[in-house]
Write a structure and sequence with these properties.
This protein is mainly β and 104 residues long. Helices cover 4% and strands 67% of the residues. The strands form two sheets. Strands 1-4-5-8-7-6 form a six-stranded antiparallel β-barrel. It is globular.
């Protein structure tokens, strides 16, 4: 078992964003993932939009988990709070990959 699994001591319910249709967001089936949350850090996050412009937002926290990448605009429910995924990327650590998810 990879070392990262021992650090994932919390759980979050992830509802993946699929697409937008008729002005409404369409979500897939929810799943529960083991994770580790870093909240309240008021992280500043900058990302590039598809049109080439940059946005800078104040993130509410970061979530570390394993599994398939989580699409932007997905919903995450953890510790009684709902968060929206800004970005998700795969990182390597402890000889196993994990996801780092920036939450708004």
């Amino acid at each position: 078992m990879p070392l990262i699994d021992f650090l994932l001591t919390q759980e979050a319910v992830v509802t993946p964003f699929l697409r937008e249709a008729g002005g409404e967001d369409i979500y897939g089936d929810s799943e529960t993932r083991k994770c580790r949350l870093q909240l309240g850090a008021d992280l500043e996050h900058t990302y590039k939009n598809p049109d080439g412009t940059f946005d800078q937002v104040l993130a509410r926290g970061k979530m570390y988990c394993t599994g398939e990448p989580i699409p932007a605009r997905s919903k995450v429910m953890a510790d009684g709070e709902e968060y929206i995924v800004l970005t998700c990327y795969r990182a390597r650590g402890f000889k196993a990959s994990h996801l780092e998810v920036v939450l708004e």
